[in-house]
Here is the input.
Amino acid sequence: MAQLSVQNSNVIIFVSYAVLLVSGLSLALKLRHQSKVLINSFATEWHCANRTQTGNSTILTLLAYYQFSNLREAIPLALNFIASALGSGILFSYPQLATIAGVQGVVTYAITSSAPLMVFAYLGPVIRKKCPDGFVLTEWARQRYGVTCSLYLSFLTLVTMFLYMVAELSALHQIMNALTGIDGMRFVIVECIITTVYTAFGGFRISFVTDNIQGAMVIGLSILFARHIWLHTNKYDKVFIATVTIGFETKIDQRLVDSSGLTDSSLLGWQLLYILPMAVLTNDFFLSNFWIRTFASKTDEELWIGVSIATMTVMIILTLVGTTGLIACWTGAFDPSDPMLDGSIAFFYLLKQLPAWIIGIILVMVVTLSTAAFDSLQSAMISTASNDFFRNRLNVWWVRLSVLIVMLPVVVIALKAPSILRIYLISDLISSSTIPLLVLGLMDSMDFLHGYDIVAGGVGGIFSVFIFGVIYYGNIRQGIRLTLLEEGLYANDWSVFGAFVSAPLGGIFWGLGSSCVRKGYRILMRKSKGSMTHCIE
Here is the structure.
């Protein structure tokens, strides 16, 4: 791989971070000066911006000329969802799946990762109507199920976002190691400092604005390289590939295409048609950065348009990124039959054919992607904790301090995290056991569900996975390993599929069972009191 010198790599990366820091602080100070409300009101705005986000971005002035008002006002929201949905981790997981499940896996993963965003357009207005003063899902859970369930969901939400932050920094660390040959720890620390500084000053509102810029950069570079492909395809007898961050030429060996089997369907590919929608859809419910943006939309119509645009854009980008795994196999850059090669870095094997200037652009885009995803998770995590545990009564300065404290364990764990995909899978299994039962509470006919039932269902769902593992393998130790998904997503059997079936079904079973036990206990107590009253009479 044509590699940049250490000096050039440092300059590109640190200048990119400096630009993001200056722009973030400038916007934060601007928003603070524009605020003409009392400090307590500002503290509330730090956490959320309910029904305030509309078409105020300078990027949208061109659309104003054409008077597409609804579209114009939905674009900032779409950019936010795009920036929040993408992170540097996509350069690992999507190409890796392509090397295992082929074209079927790429298409399935891209669709099932993007389509669940539409749940916010569908359920967002429903939940906002039921809980107009809330800005995260846990606030509705508190209103519907009570404090116990709300605190349980808050804990799971914070754990999920914590894991996502760890995965993001772990991906950044590994990418910088691969692209620059420099220890990526310094860049991890710098990113944490930068996002912590401007997030502490601006809160959610600054995250919303910076995501507009970062989301636009991602789309802009994608268009740039798509144009690069179109201009050069007729000139050279080669295949050109574009992803979020790359545009390059490479030669595909037709013999490798035929022998790889990646164009054929597979058992794993069919299993993923169920596993991925269940995992991604339920896990999105625990990501407060999406819910805060859902509640921030000014109207339901703008929410629908914005999320629809984001869904299509994310799907296209993820498909392009996943395709690099296929190309790596078909060009001989990566041999999937070699057990010594790691499919999670197939993207970087492919980069060996790139010129140095492309590496520079990739570094800029990695910094942008990672920062956009990380500051969204950061602000959402603090907003959720402040709202759910302190009811937004905590002083703003204490909130800012908490941002700094949270970063310490995130960095330590990220530098030691072995597998990014496994981190995601653990949180997916937790959400799969809890969310299906929780969502049933939106139905009027399920008003008998109580907060204790949700907690029992969530814990019972995980226990059901363990029971399935013991039955499937006939071994308690293997049952524990399956519960922790130690074999990853790409097992050559039905174990992972069974785990993601057991989790939601088990969660619903244990939750409804808890409801029956509660009702039975009440009936017995009522009859017991009636008998005692009869005896006294």
Notes: The chain has two domains: 6-12+22-52+77-416, 420-537. Confidence is low (pLDDT under 50) at residues 36-43, 55-67, 225-248. The CA atoms of residues 484 and 508 lie 20 Å apart.
